Amino acid sequence: ERFRISELIICDKDKNKILNGNYELHFPVSVVDNNKFISFCNGQPKNYALPLLEYYLKNVVLINSVDFSRAEEFVLKKFMFIDENSQRDLEIFEPLLDIKKEFTLLSIMDNTVTPMGGRLLRNYLAFPLLNINEINERLDAVGALINKSYLLETMKKTLKKISDLERILTNLESYSPYPRNLVGLSNSLKQVREINALIKEIPDISRDFLLPDLSHVISMIENAIIDEPPTNIRDGGVIKDGYSRELDELREILKGGAKFIIEYEKREREKTGITSLKVRFNKVFGYYIEVTKANLSNIPDYYHRKQTLVNAERFITDELKALEEKVLTASEKSKQLEILLFSELIKEILKYKEEIKKISEIIAKLDVLVNFANNAIRYNYVRPNLVNNGQFKVLEGRHPFVERSIDNFVPNDTVIDKESNIMLITGPNMAGKSTYMRQVALITIMAQIGSYVPAKYAQLPIIEQIFTRIGTSDFLAAGKSTFMVEMLETSRILKESNERSLVILDEVGRGTSTYDGMAIAWAVLEYLALHDKKPYVLFSTHYHELTELSLTFKNIKNYNVLVREWKGDIVFLHKLQEGVANRSYGIHVAKLAGLPESVILRAKEILEQLENELIKGTNRKRIMKEEKVQLSLFSSLEKRVFDEVKDLNLNKVTPLEAFDFLRKLKEIIGD
User: What DSSP line would sit under 15-84, residue for residue?
Assistant: First the structure.
């Protein structure tokens, strides 16, 4: 769920398991023969994934110089787990609405200026850290950059001049490297000196971010490659004049070919005295000498007849043939020699690939951290204090991208600890409950990737897993309704959450009937309250009855989002406070949505009647306007039986009265 698979590579011994199994494969599958595995110089690999991948890269993708002996194990347990549903709900990479593509955590955080930095930031968001020391190393670097904020703009402009070193290196290691990539590499390496000068002004990070000097690589490229080479080496014209004497001679032949032919023609006219002698060329015969029949008596012995025409004869000479061969093959020889020289140059440059990789990695990390520092300054972020266990405390926290889309965003506090690990939040729709809960999760993610966070103060425990159940989504094609999806996601959360989990549940149970939904929500909340591992929980609901659970479970705290009534309308204050919402304001929200006035007035009548009946404790009667006739779902006989059963109070009836009641029903029904 953490990776998007573009292609599956499997061993032929496993193909029947995969291809004939009950798997839904939405990507191509490549099968590799066991016998074609490439052996590792350091013995057998830990698993068969590496040789499969090596064979695929070297024989299908044609990348031949990847060093698999340096492969490192990637351990998922070192990183926070955010499943696909939570990534979607929190809009980390993709927006919930396509019309707001710029509103994702990635898009609002990504002001990186290098391709490597952009990819690294995405990786950071997919895999937030769990190790406090590693997180603090990033935060320390961001802090050091903020302290030298006057350098940030210069550093950003310098980083912007650096090409995609990762892809350049990959291309140079392929079978068809591009000449322009060498120029891009040279121009990028030229920025090293300026970046190092800037880094030295920030002593706190200079130890980790100083770049190796590859001036000699720059010289190699500049001596060999022209400033603006063609895309493909096979087109020629890539190597500079003066780099190779042999290549220069071939180019002189190409440039002077026409001149040689003119001079040769002039010499032959002088030797033979034939003023009409011409040296011509066609694709069939190549270069030839043409002499009219009137001058055939003057031709020398070294002319060899090639073709006879009506009024002329065509000849060749050994000298002309040699000149022809030299001119016609100079172009091809020049291109072949350039390819050879280019290949030798790349081999020399690849001797420094580890240094280039290191530069690429440092540049990517520096780009991300400069980006974090700029964001912190520009948007008034604060450094979070990370703790292994303890209180989750954020003062005046803000949603990182909602705050940029509206004026006067209202910040909110969040305080959760193990003694009160569940926040039960009530309030009407549009009050901001979902935004607030997303905000808490996003601040957590930002902190654990090493970024400052949108808040006045933040102390955060290390979170290993974030689980969210927000919004609705159907998977009807897979036979899963909205409610089924909701229950599957909730089930997973209850089974997998632990003491280091952040759980966000928004309106559990709303996908079914009121009483079923409330019963499920109640049971889920009870389960979480009794959970021995006590995850950090934010639970929003419209079922106000659930707030009574705080009387039974001391680890549940009630919160509500403030709303004020003004002249029959409501004003959403978007401010979270401790306590219970006294009303749901559903009809007011419906009015804001533009429902017809008649519908709003009728809803108010029904609500008032329901509330009065609830207060009086009477049985709820059918709610129907007197002037309207409601179609009955039953026949008159069934209706009479239904009404008799409905009015029976089972808590007060005696056995004898129950028997009499059954006899009465039988009389109504008849034989």
Answer: HHHHHSSS----S-EEEE-GGGPPPPTTSS-SSTHHHHHHHHHHHTS-B----GGG-----GGGB-EE-H
Q: What are the residue ranges of helices labelled H in 273-296?
A: none
Written as one letter, the residue type at 166 is E
Contact status, residue 327 vs residue 260, Cβ threshold 8 Å: yes
Q: What is the pLDDT of residues 606-652, one digit of tens each?
A: 777 766 765 555 444 444 444 444 444 445 566 667 777 777 777 77
Note whether 208 and 366 are within 8 A (CB): no
- Burial classification of residue 616, based on how many CB atoms lie within 10 Å of its CB (0-12 exposed, 13-18 middle, 19 or more buried): exposed
CA 283 remoteness from chain centre: 56
What is the pTM assigned to this prediction? 0.77
Non-local (6+) Cβ contacts of 415 within 8 A are: 391, 392, 393, 394
Give how far Cα 275 sits from Cα of 270, 278, 315, 318, Å: 8, 9, 16, 21
**Residue 377 CB neighbour total at 10 angstroms:** 14
Average pLDDT estimate for 317-329: 83
- Residue 31's DSSP bridge partners are 10
Question: For 437-494, how does the pLDDT look when each residue is reduced to its tens digit (9 = 90+)?
Answer: 999 999 999 999 999 999 999 999 999 999 998 865 544 334 456 778 888 888 889 9
* Angle between helix 165-172 and 353-379 (nearest 10): 160
* Distances from the Cα of 550 to the Cα of 40, 244, 428, 628, 667, angstroms: 61, 85, 20, 44, 51
SS3 call for 303: coil
Does the pLDDT value for residue 106 go beyond 60? yes
Q: What are phi and psi for residue 49, nearest 5 degrees?
A: -65, -40
The partner residues of 480 in beta bridges, in order of sequence, read: 475
**For residue 558, what are the contacts with CB-CB under 8 A and spacing of at least 6?**
424, 426, 547, 550, 578, 579, 580
Residue 592 DSSP label: H
Residues with Cβ within 8 Å of residue 296, at least 6 apart in sequence: 313
Name the pLDDT band for 27 (thresholds 50, 70, 90): low
> pLDDT by residue (tens digit) across 554-602?
999 999 988 887 766 777 788 999 988 766 667 767 777 778 888 877 8
Would you call 267 exposed, middle or buried from its count of C-beta atoms within 10 A (0-12, 13-18, 19+)?
Answer: exposed
Helix/strand/coil percent split, the chain, to 5: 50, 15, 35
Distance (Å, whole) CA 345 – CA 518? 72
Q: What is the pLDDT of residues 208-263, one digit of tens each?
A: 999 999 999 999 999 999 999 998 888 888 999 999 999 988 888 777 777 788 88
Q: Which residues of 242-263 are buried (b: 16+ CB within 10 A; e: fewer)?
A: eebeebeebbebbeebeeebee
